Amino acid sequence: MYAPVKGAVKLRALDYAERNGYIRGVVKEIIHDPGRGAPLAKVQFLNAYHYKRDMELFVATEGMYTGQFIYAGKKASLDVGNVLPLTEVPEGTIVCNIESKQGDRGAYARGSGCFAIVKSHDEDKGTTRIELPSGGKKSVPSSARAQIGVVAGGGRTDKPLLKAGAAYHKYRVKRNCWPKIRGVAKNPVEHPFGGGNHQHIGMPSTVAKDAPSGRKSGLIGARRTGRLRGVKKSGQDKD
Hints:
By secondary structure, this protein is mainly β. Helices cover 6% and strands 24% of the residues. The N and C termini lie far apart (47 Å).
């Protein structure tokens, strides 16, 4: 059922060249990955230890092209597509495919059109504060690496799917999560909200977070329900 994916998308494994200088790669091809909104870039690097070439699969950033040189490392220049540790990235820079820990090869801002903004560096703690695509702010180690630029394939959700067939093909290659049937439209044996002469829940839609798995549907462990009205400043937005 699933389309063959092109492989795991990761930055280079952290090595001596990236920690102390830089290494140059070349974009060989920009490809589509089934089930992923963002295009990928096949980047070829020379292996530092053996007579061979290594092909890495990067997230393609906007403006990337075949034949482009990509530089990765502490002393790489601040250009779109290059990979640098956050210590070398000035505040206000737009980055993507950011590591959460040094050497994990990319964790945040990897979806099509996504980017994060470097907000501040705390040199005493050795951390960097970034603003994620969700608007939330996060502190990551300054030694973590990031790609410069915005992930390509942005604006994908602006165009409506228009018909069920388009949604079918979209989710067929992703995972079995479409179509979604409402609980009240089911039978009592299939869902806690099922059955009845009219489609109604017939019980509170809130449910305890320690409820058994068959009952655990609806608003799980809700502290409050209803519309969120007005603007409430959360703790992480105050800085």
